[in-house]
Amino acid sequence: MNTNTNPPSGTRDFLANDIRKRRQVTKVIQEVYESFGFEPLETPAFENLSTLLGKYGEEGDQLLFRIMLRGEKLQEAVAQNVGRDVPAERLYADLALKYDLTVPLARVMARYAGQLPKFYKRYQIQPVWRADRPAKGRFREFMQCDVDVCGSTALTVETEVIAAVCTVLERLQFSDFSVALNHREVLRGLIEAAGIAAELEGTALVAVDKWDKIGKEGVAAELVNRGITATSATKLLDLLEVASATSDNAARLAMLRENLKRPSALKGLDDLQTILQLSAAMGTSQRLALSPNLARGLSYYTGAIFEVVVPGVSGSLGGGGRYDGLVGMFAGREIPACGFSLGLERILLLLEERGYFAESSNGLDILFTNFGDTIADTLALATRARKLGLSCDVYCESAGLKPQFNYAAGRGARFVAFFGEREKSEGKLRLKDQSTGAETSVAVDEIETALPRVVVKR
Amino acid sequence: MNTNTNPPSGTRDFLANDIRKRRQVTKVIQEVYESFGFEPLETPAFENLSTLLGKYGEEGDQLLFRIMLRGEKLQEAVAQNVGRDVPAERLYADLALKYDLTVPLARVMARYAGQLPKFYKRYQIQPVWRADRPAKGRFREFMQCDVDVCGSTALTVETEVIAAVCTVLERLQFSDFSVALNHREVLRGLIEAAGIAAELEGTALVAVDKWDKIGKEGVAAELVNRGITATSATKLLDLLEVASATSDNAARLAMLRENLKRPSALKGLDDLQTILQLSAAMGTSQRLALSPNLARGLSYYTGAIFEVVVPGVSGSLGGGGRYDGLVGMFAGREIPACGFSLGLERILLLLEERGYFAESSNGLDILFTNFGDTIADTLALATRARKLGLSCDVYCESAGLKPQFNYAAGRGARFVAFFGEREKSEGKLRLKDQSTGAETSVAVDEIETALPRVVVKR
């Protein structure tokens, strides 16, 4: 007999109350994304290993959960490796659990090119797996929640994706969030304006990305550590900060424009201006905060970048941006794309802290008690109540009142129903409201009309 | 660049239309199971390998997708195995994708014993993975859909589980199904009555289980092949068939009672009689067909067994029964249990064939066209329409009418909306009904009241 009955390290079992909360949130996300015209997509839990390898850098490759070859194929691979000692993870695996939802999207874009709409607007809410060291709030199996538009470079795309995410967060009663907005070409322009060589641009971005965590002084030290002169580091930080001197996006835009020369950086500024204008039409511009020091670590972004910020909450509830070079990787042509990924696990944690899930009931409307002799009648009554849309359980076994009431309480039943010999002879179902203790009777002949008035559907 | 963009062998990508159908069906199943008082459960995609090994027989073990050790642990295992040649699948894996939903349920029953209700009624709709040879309708990643009651031997459990499944199938508009019903102890009694030795009982059951596929003559030959005398084989088949001479369950019960002597078999008959009586109270007894030749291959059943039968459809849409010895395997005590598993993939296939999914629209209510100059106004109008609960897409780019109409058709949009300079100057949104071709205008000031009358929510 096994003794370890925990779920595997970094994974979780979800019992009824967890699932209800998770479903409540994903339902909001689904509804909002569908109202914005996004289509759902689901891909398999695992991909061919070759599809995933090399897409997430060396570190990412090491975090893949690889699935072993099976049967003869494994035996052959082992036999071929005798005396050769090729690392086992290269030779003995052919599949791996998916690591994110972007590479599968890229595969889908290539595979179904002919049948997808010209602009493929898809959302995908599925688990992904990473063999990370588990920690508080960090799991090895967790939900990702992505929304992307593939196939257009138009700035309506950025605007709509941002508006969709804002609508989700507002529907989830986040009143205090903002969306930090920047542009990779603007950042590159500022890095150039600071006198940093082009080949140090990537490493500079990594340092700037840590601003939230280590502050301005920390970034300065990190820039110098990464081979950038102290003069350039100071200049860059001043440039990044000058635009933060005002909270007015138009003023920030104007300050940035003064310091930028590169046409691509000025084009980036124009893009941001357009996104802000279109967002004003959609009622989301007051959520947007132009943030020159927002870098977003991933190297694949090519245009606008964004990140959800909640005051007092460290880290982000989600982020995204334009990444025109990635989604076409399997299609063999560049497919422009822009998307937003929400951190569902963090959102759930925060909603829990904020008391969003007030209703703790597990949804059971009536527990029907069981007194043995009248059980057939009781089952018939439960059947009629279920047809009225009520969630009803019947106590499995004939028993005394105490265990039945205990069970009803444990299941969070709103009403307990009695139909023993006495009630049967009177032709009445007796009901006890568990929150008030009040008792009511409903004539058996009138269940269909009277019961919904007593046990009001939630 | 990878060239193979198919999903891995035996798995599928689900695009929007697939997902809508799958969601439509799982929603019915969820609603019905919740109305019967079942709680949802979800467990991780993978379990510790030791949790799964040895639970499905040798054949099952070989069908597990094993996940390789990672990093140093893998290196250590490889180093330790030099010159020892322990099979790689034993040494190099620590996790495996779940093979079914029953073993995870057993683990959950042990892990959360203190916090689960006395009778744990749970449903679970999740994918499982089996490294089977893929074939038409057989996948390596497929949904299982289980409903089980743990903790009671009462026959209300069998009755409720059967009624829940019948309600699901009726809600899915299956009018022609029946549920074959038998009892393991009745079968054992018949095998004994045929003069077959107790040690051949298991192998006899395997042969009887093939009745549907190979017919009576086939089973006879198989019984003899399995070491049962021709006399006993003939007697058993006659016993199994005599009770099929009538379609009346009560008459079948009476015939069986004449041929059975073992107390446990007679108790099994009593159980079946009670299930039929209680099912009559729930309105499901007319679906039940007492079927003495129903065996259900799995050896773990201990009481009543059932299987959904649809005329003209080979194989079953689902099955189940009582299995009192299994769910307690990790808890170290016997936990009685009874459940029903629906074959979601088969159900979907059959519903598709039967035209259940009449509505093929992908749910897009309005495509807003894009004429460049008025795009900010168009986005504002789309935002207002979305707030009315309508699913709206805005064509990403400024373009001529033709590509926009093509896109609208490809997305299955019900209406195409126009807001160019002319409409703007008139203060009217123009709408074209894609099914009738009819055009309507709605004053911009009256969107909130007038639009829902034109584009009626589905």
Provide an overview of this structure.
2 copies of one chain form a homodimer. The first copy, chain A, has 458 residues and is α+β, with helices and mostly antiparallel strands. Chain A has 4 domains: 15-45 and 99-175 and 310-360, 2-Layer Sandwich (BirA Bifunctional Protein, domain 2), CATH 3.30.930; 46-97, no CATH class; 178-292, no CATH class; 366-454, Anticodon-binding domain (Rossmann fold, 3-Layer(aba) Sandwich). Chain A is 42% helix and 17% strand. Chain A has helices spanning 16-35, 49-52, 57-62, 72-80, 88-91, 102-111, 155-171, 184-193, 201-208, 211-225, 230-242, 249-259, 263-282, 344-353, 375-387, 401-410, 421-426, 447-454; strands spanning 39-40, 46-48, 66-68, 93-97, 120-129, 141-150, 178-183, 288-290, 304-309, 318-322, 337-342, 366-368, 392-394, 415-418, 428-433, 439-443. Chain A has an 8-stranded mixed β-sheet with strand order 1-5-6-11-10-9-7-8. Chains A and B meet through α1, β1, β2, β3 and α4 of A and α1, β1, β2, β3 and α4 of B.
